[in-house]
Task: inverse folding
């Protein structure tokens, strides 16, 4: 008995010492890697269930162009699209005059939960039916534009698909998904079970552990913790400071949902009542799909099957591989900040947005069938125009209720109606680049 008590005592002592060392180390990292402020405006909006979430706005003039909503990946925040500094997707789009709104979902540290709630309560449905309707309504009212362009990386692209299935495309001018799974049948990727278990028990501790590795990420290349990325293709500007401040916690319910989708192959939202992957025919937004050859979440046969099932012809698929003429076989995370993403990813994104005006006007364009990269000239022009990153004073808005609470309610009430029968609108032109 005495031996057991001694063992427990030393275990507790080591746990306390370990906790103190980890906290001290994290304090040093916070001091060494201060959070960069990228947007020139920070808008705090309140969802209809009283969460406060933030939109980081970047515009280049007092009369900015059309709004672009950027939705981050699972373990990331708005820095997903602000990295590398000076050469990011937001830099390219804002240099062309677009009004960029990078969203932090309620899982991010910037969000504020109502009393009695926290990260343990957050589900995928909360992102889809609470955060995104509030964000889109806020942007529409703030800019005066009836529609937004949507760019989503990984989970951000999944939310685009689910939103279009649930609510339709009334408020969407165009959609771009980067490395977004279109369902989980025949997707043979399994993140480490230990990581998911730790997330389910202590999501904030998991985030702390992941952040603690970021100073060594480029040397350790941590594929072992379920981070699907081609490290040879990560831009040198993606440094420890960017990675440290980009990592966010994964809510336990969201982790469990994704684990279930990967296990069963079913992707259902709205408390299991709406099967997104079975309703692909309802995704009618003009859609650009960008995927990487080495991305285990978007295997080429699965993505081509998804793409072919999309209705209409206003769609385009870009598969980034050396075989298709690109500089690398892209992975998952490096789609957003690869060595040549400015040319090979941001270029096609910019062109797609330019060709789909918010007011519904379309430019005539030739069908793209070549496998070689597109958009290089446009991206180079944008890169030259993009100014060097400067520290900007942040304009904060007063936290207030999203202006479209009733509009969001109306959207949610129409989910059943929207999913009852697919829209059959013919779109002009089918664009597919392998």
Result:
């Amino acid at each position: 008995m005495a031996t057991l008590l001694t063992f427990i005592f030393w275990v507790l002592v080591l746990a306390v010492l370990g906790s103190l060392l980890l906290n001290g180390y994290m304090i040093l990292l916070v001091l060494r890697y201060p959070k960069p402020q990228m947007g020139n405006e920070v808008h705090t909006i309140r969802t209809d269930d009283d969460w406060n979430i933030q939109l980081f706005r970047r515009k280049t003039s007092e009369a900015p162009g059309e709004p672009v909503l950027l939705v981050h990946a699972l373990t990331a925040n708005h820095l997903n699209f602000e990295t590398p500094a000076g050469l990011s997707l937001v830099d390219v789009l804002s240099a062309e005059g677009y009004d960029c709104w990078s969203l932090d979902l309620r899982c991010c540290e910037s969000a504020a939960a109502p009393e009695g709630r926290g990260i343990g309560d957050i589900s995928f449905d909360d992102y889809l039916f609470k955060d995104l309707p509030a964000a889109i309504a806020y942007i529409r009212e703030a800019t005066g534009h009836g529609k937004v362009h949507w760019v989503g990386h990984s989970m951000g692209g999944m939310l685009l698909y689910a939103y279009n299935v649930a609510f339709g495309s009334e408020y969407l001018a165009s959609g771009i998904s980067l490395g977004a799974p279109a369902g989980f049948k025949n997707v043979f990727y399994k993140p480490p079970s230990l990581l998911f278990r730790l997330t389910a028990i202590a999501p904030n501790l998991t985030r702390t552990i992941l952040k603690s590795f970021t100073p060594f990420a480029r040397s350790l290349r941590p594929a072992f913790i379920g981070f699907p990325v081609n490290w040879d293709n990560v831009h040198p500007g993606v440094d420890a400071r960017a990675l440290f401040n980009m990592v966010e916690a994964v809510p336990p319910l969201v982790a469990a949902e994704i684990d279930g989708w990967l296990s069963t192959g079913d992707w259902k939202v709205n408390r299991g009542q709406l099967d997104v992957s079975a309703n692909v025919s309802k995704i009618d937004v003009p859609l650009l799909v960008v995927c990487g050859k080495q991305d285990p979440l978007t295997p080429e046969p699965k993505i081509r099957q998804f793409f072919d099932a999309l209705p209409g012809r206003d769609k385009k698929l870009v598969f980034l591989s050396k075989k298709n003429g690109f500089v690398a076989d892209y992975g998952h995370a490096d789609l957003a900040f690869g060595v040549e993403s400015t040319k090979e990813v941001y270029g096609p994104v910019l062109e797609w947005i330019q060709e789909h005006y918010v007011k519904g006007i379309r430019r005539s364009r030739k069908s793209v069938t070549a496998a070689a990269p597109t958009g290089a000239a446009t991206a180079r022009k944008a890169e030259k125009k993009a100014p060097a990153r400067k520290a900007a004073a942040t304009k904060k808005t007063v936290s207030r209720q999203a202006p479209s609470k009733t509009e969001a309610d109306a959207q949610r009430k129409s989910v059943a109606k929207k999913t009852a029968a697919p829209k059959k609108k013919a779109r002009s032109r089918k664009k597919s680049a392998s």
